[in-house]
């Protein structure tokens, strides 16, 4: 699968970049140094420009292997990195259902960008990928993430274990329910 761009209104979704016209690596390093990011996005550590480059290369590879559709959430006029949203567990051999994931750059929080980006990614999943269901898993203490899931039409379905073995909340949305979601 090739990356696609999505106009989400207050932001646009595009592939991560590290080239002579646009370089997301410094913003990635800054975002991942945030205490909230370190607390709730434990699967990744990005502390250097080289590590940010590796992260960008991984996301590009995941698109090509049909494992994950991942977008840089970008400011529409400058292209500045505002966060990341994605759909993972997309390959038919995945052991878990398709799942949405998102993080928002510390300078961008509480501006509605997360809801716009997550809603757009979910619409892509149901429309272009023809998914029937998308899950959303967040740390049990991440109240902002849980509130975002609810705002975007996900329904709380119970507790689960996160990828790091810690307790987490599981939220689910189905294609019919997404049609009526407030973030649409």
Highlighted features:
single chain; 184 residues; alpha+beta; Aminopeptidase; 8-stranded mixed β-sheet; 6 helices; 32% helix; 26% strand; globular
Polypeptide structure, described:
The two termini are 25 Å apart. This protein is globular. It has helices spanning 25-32, 35-40, 49-64, 113-127, 143-151, 175-178, and strands at residues 6-7, 12-14, 69-74, 81-88, 99-104, 133-139, 155-161, 167-174. Helix 4 links the parallel strand 5 (99-104) and strand 6. It has a single domain (6-178), classed as Gcn5-related N-acetyltransferase (GNAT) (Aminopeptidase, 3-Layer(aba) Sandwich), CATH 3.40.630.30. The protein has an eight-stranded mixed sheet with strand order 1-2-3-4-5-6-8-7, sandwiched between helices. It has 184 residues and is of the alpha+beta class.
Task: Give the helix/strand class.
Answer: alpha+beta
Arithmetic mean of pLDDT: 90
Percent of residues in helical segments? 25-40%
Count of separate structural domains: 1
The major beta sheet can be summarized as: 8 strands, mixed
Could you give the order of the helices and strands?
A: EEHHHEEEHEHEEH
Distance between the ends:
25 Å
Please tally the helical runs, counting DSSP H or I stretches of 4 or more residues.
6
Cα radius of gyration in angstroms: 15 Å
| Shape verdict | globular
- Taking pLDDT < 50 over at least 5 consecutive residues as the criterion, the unreliable ranges are none
Oligomer: single chain
- CATH class reads Alpha Beta
For this structure, the CATH topology is Aminopeptidase
């Amino acid at each position: 699968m090739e990356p696609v761009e999505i106009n989400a209104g207050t932001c646009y979704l595009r592939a991560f970049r590290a080239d002579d016209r646009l370089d997301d690596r410094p913003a990635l390093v800054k975002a991942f140094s945030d205490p909230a990011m370190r607390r709730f996005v434990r699967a990744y550590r990005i502390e250097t420009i080289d590590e940010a480059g590796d992260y960008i290369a991984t996301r590009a590879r995941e698109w090509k292997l049909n494992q994950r559709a991942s977008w840089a959430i970008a400011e529409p006029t400058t292209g500045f990195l505002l966060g990341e949203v994605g759909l993972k567990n997309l390959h038919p051999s995945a052991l878990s259902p398709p799942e949405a994931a998102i993080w928002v750059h510390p300078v961008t929080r509480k501006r509605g960008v997360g809801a716009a980006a997550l809603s757009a990614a979910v619409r892509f999943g149901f429309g272009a990928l023809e998914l029937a269901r998308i899950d959303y898993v967040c740390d049990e203490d991440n109240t902002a993430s849980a509130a975002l899931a609810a705002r975007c039409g996900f329904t709380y379905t119970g507790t689960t274990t996160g990828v790091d073995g810690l307790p987490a909340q599981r939220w689910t949305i189905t294609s019919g329910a997404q049609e009526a979601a407030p973030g649409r």
